[in-house]
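Hi V.,

You were right to ask for the full record rather than a summary. Here it is.
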Amino acid sequence: MRIFFTILSTLGLILPNFASEKPFAPIPMPGPFPRGLTSDGKYLWVSDWKKDMLFQINTDGKVLKSIPSPGYNPAGLAWDGKFLWNSDLSERKIYQIDTEKGIVLKSIDSPTPSPDALAWDGKYLWVADSRADEIQKISPSDGTTLHSFKSPASDPTGLAFDGKYLWVTDRIRDTIYMVSPETGDVIMFFPSPGPYPVGIAYHENELFVGDYQEGKIFALKIPDEKMIRTNERYADIIYTQEFKNLGPGDVEDLDVFIPIPETKDSQIIESVNFEPKPKEILTDKDGMKVAHFNFKSLKFSSNIEIVMNVRAKIYEVYYFIRPESVGSIDEIPKEIKDRYLINDEKFDYENPVIKNALKEAVGDEKNPYWIARKIFKYVGEKLYYELAGGWDTAPTVLKRGSGSCSEYTFVYMSMCRAMGIPTRYVGAIVVRGDDASYDDVFHRWVEVYFPKYGWIPVDSQAGDRPTPAEQGFYFGHLSNRFLITTYSGGGSPYLEWTYNSNVKWTFKGKAKVIVENYGEWKPVKKSREK
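Predicted structure:
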């Protein structure tokens, strides 16, 4: 039996489908108010707040054993290989229990005000707290906090350890996060199977997630795909480039370059049409196709309008990256290095400003994923968003401490390239709010190249988001709001450092010109199948 889930997250996105590859049907909960969930290696344990009981069950839901909880508000559960640990919210205690004898062996004070969930990493306890919005590693002997970081989101209800990573359930966003126990960074995330996850256990290489509202425990597959795409948006995107000569002089020569959108992980391009037709189709140094338009002798009051009509399916894309599976920098293909490690004018990565920033941000890290992740965090901490016009070089932006999305992009690309990680930028036309919308701001972000994974989207502007969940959302994930038109390592002979389009002209005398470009989104209704 395969179990499929589609969950609507409060992040405003449709989360994808995941399936259990094992024949586990949903398991009924043993009580009416389940809280904690853990595995003892053979069976599952569930705590129930209303019954004040701890239940051992098999994967059919049969209760094999039940013992009274030590307190009156039992919550988190963890198994240390021999004994069961149970946190109590009313007492703010964590108890070690001998389940064979049904006796409490130890009681320690919780270092947090609301110890909602527990996990065991083989040596230490972990506590997730919804009031403190923290996850803490504590000593099982006396509860001393050894390490802590911010919870992925505000209401962690379950915690598990798989031998390498922590798994955290979040009942507000109905989401499950894979979290680094060293840094607290969200590495991947996907939906919980129900609207109120209350516990999570790692059992027989599967994740088991309890849901209070459904009254069931679900088995989930841990994603092993490189990526999935979901949440299709079917739309016509109309991009308009206008050029007006207000005179009094003449524009002698006008060149307009518009990159032609291509099918990528996040989009399937069904058609691209131009009005008027381009003079020629060019290919730039990164392999991008560019439509070239040329106009001569534009007199006073001349107006030029070029329209690109695109019909496309746009997707939300999730990339599932395990840092330990990313190849080394030495494994990056030479042709990728030659093209996407160039120290171009916007990057200037030999500048002392960039070199000093890397010492602070990266240290002696060697793993490409963690190098890119640490730079992501550093840029988010050092810059704030400011749309002031102009695109300065990476050292200038970093010294100033503020920048536009393009300037964030240049800083991030510069620092990654200096560390040997290839980068390029992509530019897009963006859905602004409603499905039918207008965009004249656009957006640009980075793609980093990870050996064994390929190009991965990173929106470096989002590194300053307030929660680890929101930060993780912009590293290896792309929403379905973008038609990507441009990809470039920088300094294109046709697009130069811009994206979506580029306009060049020569003029004689005094000629004032107005250049405008904008995109429109129009949803397309799919025809009903006969």
